[in-house]
Design goal:
Radius of gyration: 21 Å
Largest sheet: 2 strands, antiparallel
Order of helices and strands: HEEHHEHHHEEHHHHEHH
Shape: globular
Distance between the termini: 46 Å
Number of strands: 6
Number of domains: 1
Strand order of the largest sheet: 1-2
Oligomer: single chain
Strand content: 5-15%
Structural class: mainly alpha
Number of helices: 12
Length: 299
C-alpha cells in the first residue's frame, strides 16, 4: 500500500511538472493538451483547438508535436534534437513529394539548378539551425569548415541590419547557395521553409528577382508580383513546422522564434556546442541577435 502511494505521489508530481512546462505564446495561448495513460504511462498530445483551416493540416501538426514528445521524452539533448529535426525534415520531404505527385504533369516549374527563390531571408527554428550546424561539423573537413565559417561570416556582415525586402535581391544569395551551379550545398538538411517552396512559373520567379521594377513592386507588397505556387506543399511545411515549434515550446519551454538562417549559423559556428546547450536549457537569449524581423514564437 505504501509503495502504491509513493508511486501515485511520484506520478502526480510528474504530471504537475509537465503542466508547468506549458509555455504560452506571444498571444497568451496554449495550443497543446498533454495526456497520460495511467496504466501504461504512455503520453501523447492533442490540439486544444484547430490551428489551421484544413483538417489534414491539424492532423499533421498534432503528429509532429507527438513525434517531438516521443523522441525527446524526459531527456532532451542536442543529439536528440538533431535526430528529431532530421526525421521531421525527411518526413516533410516525403509528405510534400506525395502532394507534388498529385499536381498536373509539368505544372510545377522547380527543378535542379533553379535558384530564384534562394535570394531572400530564410527563416529557421533554433532546432533546424543546430541540425544544419551538426551536419556541417560531421561532413566537412577542418579546412572546409573553416572556409564555410569565413563565408558565413562574410554573408552575415553584408546582410546584417537589412530588412526582409532589402534582402530580396540578386546581390544577396543564400550563404549555402552554390551560385555557379544554382544548387544548395546543404540540400540534405535544408530548412523546412525551403522544402515547401515551389513555383508554377520559373520565368515569373526570374523576373521577380532580376527585373528592378518587378522586384520593387514585390518588395512593396504588390500582390500582383507575388507569383503563383502549388499551395498544398506550402501548407504542409507550415503544419509540420507548427507541430515542431509547439512541441518544443509548450512541452520543453524552448525558444522557437524564427531566426535568420545566416545569422543563426554565424552564431553557432562562432559559439559552438555551448550555444546549443544554452538554448536547450531554456535560456531565451542565445539566439537573440539572429532573430528574423518581426519574429514571434510558435505559429
Amino acid at each position: 500500500m505504501a509503495e502504491r502511494s509513493r508511486k501515485a505521489a511520484r506520478a502526480a508530481a510528474e504530471r504537475q511538472k509537465k503542466k508547468e512546462r506549458a509555455f504560452r505564446d506571444d498571444a497568451g495561448r496554449v495550443h497543446l493538451a498533454l495526456h497520460r495513460d495511467p496504466a501504461s504511462g504512455r503520453e501523447w498530445v492533442t490540439l486544444k483547438k484547430t490551428v489551421f483551416p484544413e483538417t489534414w493540416q491539424n492532423e499533421v501538426t498534432e503528429g509532429a508535436a507527438n513525434t517531438t514528445l516521443g523522441l525527446l521524452a524526459h531527456e532532451p539533448s542536442p543529439a536528440r534534437v538533431v535526430e528529431l529535426t532530421r526525421g521531421i525534415m525527411d518526413s516533410t520531404s516525403r509528405l510534400i513529394a506525395g502532394l507534388l505527385a498529385r499536381a498536373a504533369e509539368n505544372a510545377v516549374a522547380c527543378k535542379a539548378g533553379c535558384d530564384h527563390c534562394c535570394y531572400q531571408v530564410v527563416g529557421v527554428t533554433a532546432a533546424e539551425a543546430i541540425t544544419i550546424y551538426d551536419h556541417l561539423r560531421a561532413t566537412l573537413s577542418p579546412p572546409e569548415l573553416e572556409r564555410v565559417t569565413a563565408h558565413i561570416a562574410e554573408r552575415y556582415a553584408l546582410t546584417r541590419g537589412l530588412s526582409s525586402a532589402e534582402r530580396f535581391s540578386p546581390e544577396h544569395p543564400c550563404a549555402f547557395l552554390d551560385v555557379a551551379t544554382g544548387s544548395c550545398t546543404i540540400y540534405e538538411v535544408r530548412p523546412l521553409a525551403c522544402r515547401g517552396m515551389n513555383s508554377l512559373d520559373a520565368s515569373e520567379c526570374a523576373q521577380r528577382l532580376r527585373d528592378p521594377a518587378t522586384r520593387a513592386a514585390f518588395r512593396s507588397g504588390d500582390s500582383s508580383a507575388a507569383g503563383h505556387m502549388y499551395l498544398e506543399p506550402h501548407h504542409a511545411f507550415r503544419a509540420v513546422s507548427a507541430g515542431l515549434q509547439l512541441g518544443l515550446s509548450e512541452l520543453y519551454r524552448l525558444d522557437t522564434r524564427a531566426l535568420d538562417l545566416v545569422a543563426a549559423l554565424h552564431l553557432l559556428l562562432q559559439g559552438g556546442p555551448p550555444l546549443a546547450e544554452a538554448w536547450l536549457r531554456g535560456e531565451k537569449t542565445p539566439f537573440d541577435t539572429a532573430l528574423s524581423p518581426g519574429a514571434k514564437r510558435n505559429v
